[in-house]
């Protein structure tokens, strides 16, 4: 792991009316590192992901992204086209609901190939070959390449979204409850897949989850949020096995075994 | 290789009215390369707590935990989390009492993933050899250990702990659910690790096993419970 952060946020605050969704949040992410953001429903996890990825602007605070050339970019001051270009290349976003990012009227292969085309790849044969390779990596049969996503199960849709996201080899991926809403057995398979891909491709991930077992399995570090405030942060197994903050102790004690 | 200075640890149970449970105070432990120190003390004295603190799994409230990592001393009690991740990968190995099974991952991969500085192919060969040595038959290597017996899971855990040849090894009851013949294999593995220069801290319930592997004892004494 390099010594310079990939992403750094300081003092992020954002309220929705009287609701403080983020209160003075600091966050750092190093290349190749998986950071889990946990906390109960409404604690500000999704909001944090949206702000870190520039999809929402904070009321105050700053987020820096370091590009592969080492140049720092102020995520909230970037021109829109530059931010969009980042989202198409260096970054990826995995939504809880795959329908939010997949194009349901385009074939599975098209969904994956589209990201490559957006990056400027033009050779149809190569795009198709790459798309099929990625379907295989997420354990979707190659003969489904021309099928529409609407014929896919929930777990397959999520895997298709992951293929679509990773095909451009992003350095940084934001994930919002990637296993939410799936059966336990489907979840295990997806988690195993994410674990393998993230380690092999050396991707940095900000992973939002309310499931502490998912955080333990995937994340190097963890941030615990309560009402928009980061109440505890540290090594994942230390925070889960020896939580210091009352809220973290409550969170850990209310699950069977994470 | 490993030294603690004035290590202190208490648990504060916020869900029980902030009850304070002091467990460790003034712990000064040192372990040299090639040496095995056994932690001894009554149940609940804090042996596992100490071992977990050494690994960075439990938070140390005061004092230092110095580990020689790539030629320099790192204080586990103060190091950044990502530094601890690196120290664990290259220097500090830990065998917990129970295996935490990862869904869908075969025993062989669980062990091979912990190898250091070898190719994927070599790691798998080493993992298979180590599992066989611990009497986990080849037909079980491709299975996820979720359905294994307690003793089988512990042996997978041991294989994972020893495959990396980490310079510092922390062992929590590594022979607890093994029969005598299998415990003997573990005793041999510990002796070999010592010969290769590993510094080992262990908790061994079985006094016979302890006497065979430990060079010294470190006593962990229960602290007075405070309110
Ligand atoms: N666009 C919005 N308009 C108004 N309030 C919002 C908006 N988005 C989020 N909020 C509020 O901000 C708070 C944080 O919401 P957020 O979606 O970040 O929570 P979360 O931690 O992701 O929860 P969950 O686990 O349920 O997804 C909540 O109280 C929510 O109602
Ligand atoms: N995560 C934790 N949270 C709260 N208290 C803890 C935690 N871990 C250990 N303790 C407490 O610390 C004390 C020491 O426990 P520890 O497991 O270290 O004892 P031990 O010496 O290993 O005992 P044994 O020989 O029975 O394994 C016990 O009172 C235990 O309840
Ligand atoms: Mg959310
Ligand atoms: Mg113990």
CATH topology of the largest domain in chain A: Rossmann fold
Which class of secondary structure composition applies to the elements of chain B? Answer: alpha/beta
Question: Which class do the helix and strand fractions of chain A yield?
Answer: alpha/beta
Strand order, sheet with most strands of chain A = 6-7-8-3-9-10
Work out the helicity level of chain A.
25-40%
End-to-end Cα distance of chain A, whole Å, is 27 Å
Number of helices of chain B: 7
CATH topology of chain B: Rossmann fold
Strand content of chain A: 15-25%
Notes on the protein architecture:
The complex is a heterodimer of chains A (258) and B (227). In chain A, helix 3 (108-118) runs parallel beside helix 5 (154-166) and helix 4 (124-137) crosses helix 5. The model of chain A has no long low-confidence stretch (mean pLDDT 92). Chain A is built from nine helices and ten strands. By secondary structure, chain A is α/β, with parallel strands linked by helices. By secondary structure, chain B is α/β, with parallel strands linked by helices. In chain B, 33% of the residues lie in helices and 26% in strands. Chain B has seven helices and ten strands. In chain B, the strands form two sheets. In chain B, strands 1, 2, 3, 5 and 6 form a five-stranded antiparallel β-sheet that branches. The model of chain B has no long low-confidence stretch (mean pLDDT 94). Classes of the chains: A alpha/beta (258), B alpha/beta (227). Chains A and B meet through helix 6, helix 8 and helix 9 of A and strand 1 and helix 2 of B. The complex binds adenosine-5'-triphosphate (ATP) (2 copies) and magnesium ion (MG) (2 copies). One magnesium ion binds at residues 45-46 of chain A.
């Amino acid at each position: 792991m390099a010594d310079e952060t990939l992403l750094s946020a300081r003092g992020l605050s954002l309220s929705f009316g009287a609701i403080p969704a983020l209160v003075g949040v600091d966050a750092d992410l190093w290349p190749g590192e998986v950071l889990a953001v946990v906390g109960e429903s409404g604690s500000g996890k999704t909001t944090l992901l949206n702000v870190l990825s520039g999809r929402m602007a904070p009321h105050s605070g700053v987020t820096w992204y370091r590009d592969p050339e080492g140049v720092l970019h102020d995520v909230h001051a970037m021109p829109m086209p530059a931010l969009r270009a980042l989202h198409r290349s260096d970054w990826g976003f995995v939504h809880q609901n795959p329908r939010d990012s997949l194009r349901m009227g385009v074939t599975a292969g098209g969904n994956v190939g589209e990201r490559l085309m957006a990056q400027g790849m033009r050779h149809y044969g190569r795009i198709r070959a790459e798309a099929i390779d990625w379907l295989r990596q997420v354990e979707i049969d190659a003969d489904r390449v021309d099928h529409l996503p609407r014929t896919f199960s929930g777990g397959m849709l999520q895997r298709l979204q992951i293929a679509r996201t990773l095909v451009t080899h992003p350095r940084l991926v934001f994930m919002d409850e990637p296993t939410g809403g799936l059966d336990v057995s489907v979840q295990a398979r997806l988690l195993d897949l994410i674990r393998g891909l993230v380690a092999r491709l050396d991707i940095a991930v900000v992973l939002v989850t309310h499931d502490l077992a998912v955080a333990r399995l995937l994340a190097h570090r963890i941030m615990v949020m309560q009402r928009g405030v980061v109440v505890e942060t540290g090594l994942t197994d230390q925070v889960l096995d020896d939580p210091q903050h009352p809220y973290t102790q409550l969170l850990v004690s209310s699950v069977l075994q994470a | 290789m490993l030294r603690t200075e004035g290590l202190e640890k208490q648990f504060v149970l916020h869900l029980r009215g902030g009850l304070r449970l002091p467990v460790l105070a003034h712990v000064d432990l040192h372990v040299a390369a090639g040496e095995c120190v056994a932690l001894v003390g009554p149940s609940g004295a804090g042996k596992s707590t100490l071992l977990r603190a050494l690994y960075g799994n439990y938070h140390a409230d005061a004092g230092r935990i110095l580990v020689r990592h790539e030629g320099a001393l790192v204080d586990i009690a103060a190091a950044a989390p990502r530094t601890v991740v690196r120290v664990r990968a290259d220097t500090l190995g830990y065998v917990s009492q129970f295996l935490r099974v990862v869904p869908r991952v075969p025993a062989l991969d669980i062990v091979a993933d912990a190898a250091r500085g070898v190719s994927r192919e070599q790691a798998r060969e080493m993992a298979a050899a180590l599992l066989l040595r611990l009497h986990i038959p080849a037909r079980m290597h491709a299975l996820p250990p979720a359905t294994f017996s307690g003793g089988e899971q512990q042996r997978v855990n041991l294989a994972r702990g020893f495959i990396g040849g980490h310079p510092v090894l922390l062992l929590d009851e590594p022979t607890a659910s093994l029969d005598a013949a299998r415990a003997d294999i573990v005793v041999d593995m510990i002796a070999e690790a010592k010969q290769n220069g590993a510094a080992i801290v262990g908790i061994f319930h079985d006094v016979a096993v302890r006497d065979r592997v430990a060079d010294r004892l470190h006593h962990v004494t229960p602290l007075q419970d405070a309110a």
